[in-house]
Amino acid sequence: MKKIQNFVFATLGLIAIISLIVGAFYTAKLFISYLNEIDASIAAAIIAASGTILTAVLTVVIGQTINKKREIEDAHRVFKIEIYSKFIDFTINWVFSQSRENRQAIVSSL
């Protein structure tokens, strides 16, 4: 049952991705045909404005993605510090206990 469900979701995801690509292609084709019909100076202004808007949106999206990743890493850092501290304490205590046992074994053998 789980394999069928995974197959259905994968198929739907693939269809959605293909639909988005085809839709973007036809939208770009329509936009380019529209730009060919209007005056060149107006088309240049539209392209420049579109480029500015696209750059601003991409900058904000990339910045937010980087900030979110940094927040997640900072949130995990607290838990990592706790686990690493416990591990280091355990390791140090184990090494010292082994050292004490070795000293006691040496002293008792004398």
TL;DR?
With 110 residues, the protein is mainly α. 96% of the residues lie in helices and 0% in strands.
What does this 3D model show about the protein?
The mean pLDDT is 89. The longest helix has 70 residues, at 40-109. This protein is an all-alpha fold and 110 residues long. The chain has helices spanning 2-37, 40-109.
Topology pattern, helix = H, strand = E: HH
What level of helicity do the residues show? over 70%
Alpha-carbon distance between the termini? Answer: 70 Å
Q: Outline, from the CA principal axes? A: elongated
Tell me the total number of β-strands: 0
- Which percent band covers the strand fraction? under 5%
Rg for CA atoms = 31 Å
Number of helical elements: 2
Mean pLDDT: 89
How does the helix and strand content classify structurally? mainly alpha
Unreliable segments of 5+ consecutive residues: none
Largest sheet: none
Keywords: Membrane, Transmembrane, Transmembrane helix
Transmembrane segments: 7-28, 40-62
Features:
membrane; transmembrane; 110 residues; mainly alpha; 96% helix; 2 helices; transmembrane helix
